Structures are given as structure tokens and as C-alpha cells.
């Protein structure tokens, strides 16, 4: 029914060669390689073709025998049988032509509007892409389908199960470890350092420091620091008395007698020790009051004095530009990264336990709170709509380009293997229906006497 014996042999050789095709492109490889399932489907197509052909041959034999019987005077019944068989042959041939025209040119003849799939493959791909874009990737369809699903309530009920929360926590931990592994420390350190430097350069720090210092002084928070400093200074003076006196004596003029320098050194040391001791033991010491006033004035200058603020900004730039500060930023990222990776790997870490508890709590709330469900549904709908409206052209072009990249002949073979068996029923039905219609027409004709 599909051509000469040579054509059939060529078809079989082509089908056998399909199993060995090894295209590098994924879509082309899919459409040029026959799997075991495809080969089994193709054998089913061949069996159905033989069944349809056998039925055609059967009605042809019936037609010949009925015509012979009619000419031999067998009676009126022979005419009815011949009419039914003749119409069955016509229906079978018409449907054979229609089915064959989908995949190839019947009998190899260049009949117009045949071999539709191989010749119209690219147009079919474009039409399929447009169909998907209009009927599956429209905003209305996406919102309607997602709203009908009720993602918020379903996700909440799913997350509320401890086993599911454990699974999500494990997947998030694996994703976090993977992301931190892929990231290069040098790149992250450079980004973090640049971000900190840029942020620090863009924002003046003197007024903030001045407000903080002003509040600390007003609350007396600096007094403990002063207590610590004067206590340590007193202890240091007690332990290093000789060094202090030697320093005073060393700074004396060379023409003064040595005993005078020594007496002056002892006197200076005693006065200094007395001053520090009094300052340590007397909360109301004048020096403490002077220090309070100095810090208050300095806090005010940091907020309002132009020169002081400019000096602080210059100092800030110098500090940030030092290599030690950049090394500190780099080491901070390394420490944070190691800490996060360790916490992600440890199932009993505080990080994973908190994430698991948060997921369980979120799931429990989402399962029973309609407002939260609506909020989650809105987020999902918004994200999905953004994707389909922004990338609809790219998604449909993926379908179009993929179909355009398929080989026409092998695509035809693949499609025929998958749907050809069902199409052969059209030929069988055409034979049966044609016979019944032919019998009906012949019967009506006889009845009306035409």
C-alpha cells in the first residue's frame, strides 16, 4: 500500500539505522534515535498496516466474488454484497490516502498537500509555540490555575509535617553549602570590602559618633572606662617607679647636679602617683569633671564643628585604606563562611534547628490562616505571571526552534511510530463504514426504483 518492494526495503533499512544514530544535540538526538519502546511501537504500526491491508484485500475478493455471482444469476443478494464491498474499497483507499499523506507522498507522487508533517514541520512548530503561548502562558490562565490549586494551604499542610520540614531543611542546607563552595573567597572578599568601603565613604560618621558619645557621657557610661584606666595607671606607676624617675632625670638639663635631678624625679613621681590615686579614689575629682566637660565638648564638635568633622573623615579614609583593615574584612568573611558551612552540615546545629522550627511554625500558620494563604498565593501568582509575561516569547521560541532543529524525515518516522497505530484504525473504520454506506445507498436506490 505504501510503494514498491524496493521502497519498503529502504524504509526498513532506514528504521534499522535509526537505533544507531548518535547526534550531539539533545533535541535532535531525541527525534533521530529510536528507543526500544519506539521500535516496539513501530512493529505495532506495521501489524496494524497489515491488518488494514488484509481487510482491503478481503473486501476486494468479496467484490470480485459477488460480481461473479451476480453475473452468474445468483440472485439479488449478490448486488447488495458487491455494492457494499465496492464502497468498502473506496473508503479504505480514501482513508489510506489521507493517513499516508500525513507522513509522505502516496506512491511517491508529487500530489499537492501531501507529506504534511515533513513539509510543514517548521510551521507546525510555530503553530504549537503560539498555541502554548496563548492557551497556557497567558496571565489569566496562570492566575486561574494557580488560584484553583490553593498553593498556600497545600504548602502549609505539607510543611507542617515534621518529616517534610526536615527534608526542606536538609535541601536548604545542601543548597547553602553548594553556593558557598562555588563562590570564590577572593571574589566575595573583594565585594564585601568594596561594599563596606563605599558605604563608609558615602556616609559621614562624625555626627553619629558625636551623638553616641554625647549619650554615653550623659548617662555616665564612660565613668567605668575612666575607673579602669586610672586604676591600671596607678598599678603601673607603683610597679615602674624607677623607670618614671629615670625618665624625669634623663630629661633634666646637663648642667644641673645629679642629686637635684634625683630629688626632682622623686618629687614628680610622688605627685603623679598622688594625682592618679586621688583620681582613682575620688569620683568627684576635678580631673574627672574636666574629662566629662572635654568629652561633652568633643561630642558637640563632632556634630557641629566643620573642621573636627573633616578631620574625622580624613582619619576614616586613612583607616579604611590600610591593608590591615582589608585583611580584617577578608578574615571576617572566611570565619563567617566556615561557621555557616559547619552549621549547615551539622544536623543538630542551632542554625538548622531554628530553620526547622521556623518551617514547622510557618507551615502550621499557613495551614489555618486564610490571610497568610492569600498572601502566599499572591506571591506565587505574581512570580509566575512575571515569568510567563516576561519570558513568554523565549519559552515559545524554545518550542519553535527545537522543532525547527529536528530532522524532517526522522521526525516523521518518530511521530508515525507513536500515533501511526491509531491512525490505521481510520483505514479499518473507513473500510467498514464505507461498506455500510455503500450498502445503504444501494438499498435505498433499489427501493425507490432508480
TrEMBL record:
Transmembrane segment boundaries: 50-66, 78-103
Amino acid composition bias (Basic and acidic residues), ranges on this chain: 1-15
UniProt region (Disordered), positions on chain: 1-25
Swiss-Prot/TrEMBL keywords: Membrane, Transmembrane, Transmembrane helix
Residues spanning the signal sequence: none
Pfam families: DUF445
Record flagged with keyword Glycoprotein: no
Keyword Transmembrane helix assigned: yes
UniProt-recorded name of the protein: DUF445 domain-containing protein
Organism this protein belongs to: Streptomyces prunicolor
